[in-house]
Structure to design on (345 residues):
């Protein structure tokens, strides 16, 4: 090849690389997830696929739990568990998770799965079965870049649901991440805090409030536990201090707290959720808490952030597996009006 042809070939190759990079950058969550879901399903044997696949309108699609679902030492969840997949199939399942969330969302999810081993070591067989293989993949409908379909990953302390329609993601809720322990207090992983930002930014938010605002925000009791297995959150009306009563610094602290939850979701969906909040108005978003300010370990607390389109629920009330008090987090982002894309219809 002469020099002229070599330069031309190099230019064409560079152009193709540029197009590939551009395509990669502009690929949507729905496109990535569809490809990943089809790759996962194609890897399954017939018996596995029958367990992992459901019709889109199957009642199972709207069922969800983040607590242990087991009886007599056996799981009762539907779907295909990781333990019944080959190593390659597990990689494809986790690739589907990564395609459907942000990097922070997928890494936090896999960390939560790994906490089952921590619980197993602490509890030594006393209590529920702890098994990192008991996380289940379920696909509803046929993954398509034009039609409607959804999928979920669910197990102890993790309940993630993604709904797609017409080549776009229309829902990523219910979106539940929980952590026991909230902070690992001993062992090789001592100091790990899978959901640490949800605590740290809560403290920052409280520090910005004056006495009058704190009195308005503080509730007489801790918030109740997150209600599982409901398609629409039944949290009642918003309580606490409204965004309209906050100054710019306080609103910025509230946004940071909201964004740490949104950052678990895929970027394009998170952006649409944040835009919905902005359109409805940050002034209509309420912040409220019950219990302590999280400055003292072992003191229970909970908080809620609620606006016209969403609600964030956080509780740190229970002891962890090693009996350290208030070291066990449940947190969720729900859609007011309905999860699973119900609001979008």
């Amino acid at each position: 090849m002469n020099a002229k042809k070599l330069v031309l070939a190099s230019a064409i190759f560079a152009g193709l690389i540029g197009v590939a990079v551009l395509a990669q950058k502009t690929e949507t969550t729905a496109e990535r997830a569809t490809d990943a879901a089809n790759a996962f399903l194609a890897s399954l044997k017939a018996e596995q696929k029958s367990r992992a696949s459901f019709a889109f309108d199957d009642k199972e699609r709207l069922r969800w739990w983040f607590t242990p679902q087991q009886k007599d030492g056996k799981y009762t969840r539907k779907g295909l568990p990781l333990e019944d997949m080959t190593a390659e199939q597990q990689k494809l399942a986790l690739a589907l998770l990564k395609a459907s969330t942000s990097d922070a969302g997928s890494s936090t999810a896999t960390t939560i799965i790994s906490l089952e081993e921590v619980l197993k070591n602490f509890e030594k067989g006393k209590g529920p079965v702890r098994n990192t293989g008991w996380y289940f993949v379920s696909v509803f409908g046929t993954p398509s870049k034009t039609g409607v379909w959804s999928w979920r990953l669910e197990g102890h302390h993790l309940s993630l649901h993604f709904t797609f329609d017409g080549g776009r993601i229309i829902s990523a809720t219910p979106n539940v991440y929980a952590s026991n322990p909230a902070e690992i207090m001993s062992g090789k992983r001592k100091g790990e805090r899978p959901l640490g930002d949800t605590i740290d930014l809560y403290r920052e938010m409280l520090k910005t409030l004056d006495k009058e605002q704190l009195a308005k925000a503080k509730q007489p009791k801790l918030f109740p536990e997150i209600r599982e297995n409901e398609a629409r959150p039944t949290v009642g009306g918003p309580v606490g201090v409204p965004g309209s009563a906050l100054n710019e610094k306080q609103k910025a602290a509230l946004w940071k707290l909201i964004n740490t939850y949104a950052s678990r979701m895929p970027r394009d969906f998170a952006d649409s959720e944040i835009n919905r909040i902005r359109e409805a108005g940050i002034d209509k978003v309420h912040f409220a808490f019950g219990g302590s300010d999280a400055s003292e370990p072992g003191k229970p607390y909970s908080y809620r952030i609620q606006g016209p389109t969403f609600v964030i629920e956080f509780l740190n009330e229970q002891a962890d597996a090693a009996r350290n008090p208030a070291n066990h987090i449940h947190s969720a982002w729900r859609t007011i009006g309905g999860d699973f894309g119900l609001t979008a219809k």
About this structure: The first helix runs from residue 3 to 26.
